[in-house]
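can u do me a favor
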């Protein structure tokens, strides 16, 4: 039983199906400045509040939407106006549709419209185009209504510069990081998950080298804490609120394992031989089984 269960879990890292969304606990914690994080059974939701209303980065799962909205109401009586999707996975965009409907127009005025839902265009493309071997697209409701296709996008909301940064071919090909410049908080989506190995979603355009580039990009944007001054806070896709030092440690781990796999490829090892090398053993007590990660690195580097 247990080995089979573990094997099934290892094979499905991108599609977590939490057992009971009605009773799963939700918890909001302040991050810094105007920014909060809502922790729960899906990906973290970053919340920015102020005079204009609420902005959400990611939306967890649809059945949680009324409870998510109730948590936002505790922070501000004003409506949710902007939703930003960090990437396509259902534990991050599942609540788009109900939360959009509960919200009020944000960036793009339109009659009867709810909140503005922003994502990189690759997210919208993958949601609306059929996946190979399937008749229907991945998603037909809760689509972003405001996509961007440039390396960055910025706007002002709640008196603060909000900067969206596209990280090409990292966790997926549609990853957006969100930087709240005055609050000094960076929301990373699943590019950074401090308690588990990164999931490189090769089927949705992810790559190990893009993942490392994105982690380095986070380090360019963050500034460490100095004496009493607060440093940049980093809200990961899953897991606790972090700072630059946490990302340095994670970037180093990911880079070291990439280099080990690349070395094994140079030695001509096939996938089962690479797995038998146990290249993540020294990190597994911290991040869990490295098998799925190693396989994705191997394939991302061109291994067959
Ligand atoms: Zn994800």
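np, heres the sequence
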């Amino acid at each position: 039983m247990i080995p089979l269960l573990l094997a099934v879990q290892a094979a499905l890292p991108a599609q977590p199906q939490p057992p009971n969304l009605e009773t799963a606990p939700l918890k909001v914690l302040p991050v810094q400045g105007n920014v909060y994080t809502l922790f729960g059974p899906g990906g973290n939701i970053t919340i920015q509040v102020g005079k204009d209303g609420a902005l959400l980065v990611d939306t967890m799962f649809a059945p949680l939407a009324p409870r998510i909205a109730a948590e936002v109401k505790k922070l501000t009586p004003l409506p949710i106006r902007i939703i930003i999707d960090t990437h396509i996975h259902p534990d991050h965009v599942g609540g788009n549709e109900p939360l959009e409907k509960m919200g009020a127009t944000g960036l793009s005025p339109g009659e009867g419209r709810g909140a503005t839902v922003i994502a990189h265009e690759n997210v919208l493309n993958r949601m609306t185009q059929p996946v190979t071997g399937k008749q229907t697209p991945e998603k037909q409701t809760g689509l972003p209504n405001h996509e961007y296709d440039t390396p960055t996008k910025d706007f002002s909301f709640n008196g603060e510069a909000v900067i969206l940064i596209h990280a090409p071919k990292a966790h997926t090909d549609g990853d957006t990081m969100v930087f709240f410049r005055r609050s000094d908080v960076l929301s990373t989506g699943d590019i950074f998950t401090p308690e588990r190995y990164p999931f490189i979603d090769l089927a949705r355009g992810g790559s190990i080298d893009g993942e490392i580039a994105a982690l380095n990009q986070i380090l360019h944007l963050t500034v460490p804490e100095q004496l009493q001054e607060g440093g940049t806070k980093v809200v990961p896709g899953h897991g606790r609120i972090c700072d630059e030092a946490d990302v340095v440690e994670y970037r180093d781990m990911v880079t070291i394992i990439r280099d080990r796999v690349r070395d094994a490829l140079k030695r001509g090892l096939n996938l089962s031989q690479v797995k038998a090398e146990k290249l993540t053993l020294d990190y597994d007590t911290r991040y869990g089984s490295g098998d799925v990660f190693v396989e994705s690195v191997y394939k991302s580097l061109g291994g067959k």
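The pocket of zinc ion is lined by residues 14, 87, 89, 92, 171, 190 (CB under 6 Å). hope that helps!!
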